[in-house]
Amino acid sequence: MISLTDFLVVSAVLFCVGLYMIVSKQNAIQVLIGIELMLNGAILNMVAFSKYDRINNGGQMFALFAIVLAAATTAVALAIILNVYKQYKTIDPGSINKLGD
Amino acid sequence: MNNFLQAIDTLTIKFTLAAVLLPLLAFLINLVIPGKHNKITGWVSTLAILFSCVLSATIFSKVWNTGHLVHQQFAWFTVGETQAYVGVLLNNLSVLMLLLVNLIALPVHIYSMAYMKDDAGYNRYFSFLSFFCFSMLALVVVDNLVLFYIAWELVGFSSYLLIGFWFSRHKAVQANKKAFIMNRIGDIGLLTAILIIYATFHTFDINILFGDHSIIKAITVYNRGEWYSPLTGSFTIPGVSYHLDDIWQFVAFIGIFLAVAAKSAQFPLHTWLPDAMEGPTSVSALIHAATMVAAGVFLLGRVYPMFNGIELNILAIVGCFTAFMAATVALTQNDLKRILAYSTISQLGYMVMAMGIGAYSSSLFHLVTHAFFKCLLFLVAGIVIHQMAHIRDDNKLDIDPQNIQNMGGLRKKMPLTFIAALIGGLALIGLPFTSGYLSKDGILIQAFQWSQGKGWLFMLIPAFAILTTWLTAFYVIRLITKVFFGDLKLRERFPNIKLHIGDGGWRYAVPLLFLAAGSLFPVFSFNPFSYEHSWLYHGMFQTGATAGEGLFHVIVPVGVNIFSVLVIYAAYRIYAKQKTNPFSQTSMLYRLSANEWYFDEIYKKYIVVPVLAMGRATFRLDRRVIDGFIHSVAYAGMALAKAAMWTDRYIIDGFLNLIVAVVQSIGNFARRFQGGKVQYYIYSMLVVILVIFILTTLI
To answer: In this predicted model, what pLDDT tens digit does every residue of A64-73 receive, in sequence order?
Structure first.
């Protein structure tokens, strides 16, 4: 029997792996993948907790919304990355430091 | 009539101004004439003095014995309530001096053109000489004490310039410094006296102070000794009284006396005059024999009414002592000019003594006659010295041209000079038929009259005066015999020397003849035996009684002159043998005389050395104490400043630097988070959230 805890552990692992990727990767695509991983960790949380709402299935509905939104954000993010590459000839977020003082 | 007189006065004043200012003009012209040895300068100065001489003769003929006083003045400046004037005062005394100075200066100028012709400083010489003439002429005609003091200083200054004319000689520099310093002592005295007189009477005007109807005369006639004004006298304002304490009156007298002693070389300030002989001989003749040294006696004549009996006695004693002392010194000197210098001091002593005994007119009479014969003797000395220097240069000898021990026999080579010297010498002794007889006779007779009935102590003054006359006879004959008689002493030491000497040209001869004529009796009196018949004696105001004059009038001159002739004969016999030193050189009296009574040594030991020591002591005080104090204050200030600097640097600056460092480190720490790396932002955000979470969990 798979308990709620197992789901939560998997989602936490996913979140942490995503967070690690965001902080450490040298490639904007990989960072984007990290974001997706974190998002999926969060969605898994919502699906897992929806067992307490069997009537409306609010958790699952919300997860579907989030997946759609994640697809949209990924599209936008990819467009941004493309533009960034055009501008800087690199997609290493460490080298794009024009925000610095 | 009055207007007419006024017009003549104006003309006279103009003439006087011209006479005084012509030498000044010559001085200014000579300053701008280029070169150092330009013959024009001599002519400029001589012509100026010639015109001045003619003018002063005109003035003399207009003012002398007319009983009319020419006095004109213009406002000069105002101090407080006192108006100072600049003006000219011509009375018998000033016109006489005006003429005398010019008459002496003219031959000296002519003589100087020859005497100085080879000197490198020819231009400078005549500039200075003209400047001196201007100062001296101004001195005799000015009408108030301020101008008198200015002229007095200028005379002293030009004398200083001329004594130090050959300023490359060390001795000349020493001599002019000495003369200047000694004269400063007198100047201080004169200034003090002027200030006291001014403080009492509130005027500088010589005529108001000392003239015929003057304040001082009114006072002194009324009550001698106490200066309290009666309400008479045309210059005293009724109701105004002048009061002067005896003590201040005496201080004023001492001031005047110092001034006279310094200028006229009286004891105790006489020692500068012999040294002043370092100047050119023509200068000695004009300034240090005839004119400038007479300025002191002239001053006495100007302020004569202010002295009381005691002060006149002091003058008499000092004058008599100076006359005697200088005569004894002159006996043993070997320097030709030094003998004459001491004889000048001696004769000036006579004049001061005559002032003291009340023989006012005789004193001034002697001043005039002395000017002629002493100037003559100096010019003779100048010629002799020049010729001796010629012998020295021609034969390349190493001798002192002024030493009379080297001379002798010059009579044959220089007959005119010899005759001039003889006339001058006899006039100096005061033998009959010379002018010196007339004036000296007057002084001696009046000295006897003055001492009569005053006690034996007062008899010493005429006694010493007569003794001085005999001493004068002795040293004059010694001088003339050694220089002009016998054979040239140099031949004994240098048998092969050649002599090319003579009387010199007309520029030497004319002044000698002129002055020699002025040393004879007809110029002053047609009666060669009676000074009272002299026009000059009558021109001056008369003082003293005439009682008993008849007796003295016969005894004194006859006795004095008979003994003088004996002295002359004795001196001639002693020195005609041409022994170098006929007297013992070791006796005390000889040493006293040869060392000039040790005055220089005494002054050096008791005045110069202590003054120098005091100067050094004050210098040390200044250096050690005052400078030390100032230095320690400076050090304290510097130490304080250093402490303040330390505080500033390490405490105040340190505090600020600390704040800066803290702020900087915080800033540096904070800006690390703003590096522009997006991932770093996220990472730091994560860390902060984690920290907050951990903290909240712990709390």
So the answer is: 999 999 999 9
Q: What is the value of ipTM here, to two decimals?
A: 0.82
Enter the tokens of residue B54.
């003619």
pLDDT in tens, B197-216: 888 777 888 887 777 666 66
Are residues B422 and B497 in contact, defined by beta-carbon separation less than 8 angstroms? no
Rounded to 10°, the helix B336-356/B360-395 angle is 180
Q: Which H or E run includes B564?
A: helix B549-576
Structure confidence by residue, pLDDT tens digits, B212-265: 666 666 555 444 444 443 333 334 444 455 666 778 888 888 999 999 999 988
Where do the domains of chain A lie? 4-88
Look at B676 and A22 and tell me if their CB atoms are within 8 Å: no
**pLDDT (tens digit per residue) in A2-15:** 888 999 999 999 99
Task: Give the up-direction half-sphere exposure of residue B374: CA atoms within 13 A in the CB hemisphere.
Answer: 31
Contacts of B677 in chain A (CB under 8 A): 93-94, 97, 100
Residues of B with CB below 8 A from A19's CB? 686
Nearest to B462 by CA among B567, B294, B323: B323
Nearest to B416 by CA among B477, B506, B337, B487: B506
Q: What confidence tier does B293 reach under pLDDT thresholds 50, 70, 90?
A: confident
Nearest CB neighbour to A93, from listed B671, B675, B678: B678
Question: What tokens were used for B384?
Answer: 């002799």
> Whole-angstrom Cα distance, residue B65 to residue B492?
57
Alpha helix segments (H runs only) across B33-167: 39-63, 92-115, 122-141, 145-163
Report the CATH number of the A4-88 domain: 1.10.287.3510
Integer CA distances (angstroms), B663 to A100, B391, B657, B666, in order: 20, 102, 10, 5
Q: Considering only residues B430 and B586, tell me which one the structure prediction assigns the higher pLDDT.
A: B430
Q: Are B479 and B595 in contact (CB under 8 A)?
A: no
CA distance B638 to B608: 42
Which of A23, A96, A99 lies nearest to residue B682, judging by beta carbons? A23
Boundaries of every domain in chain B: 311-591, 601-698
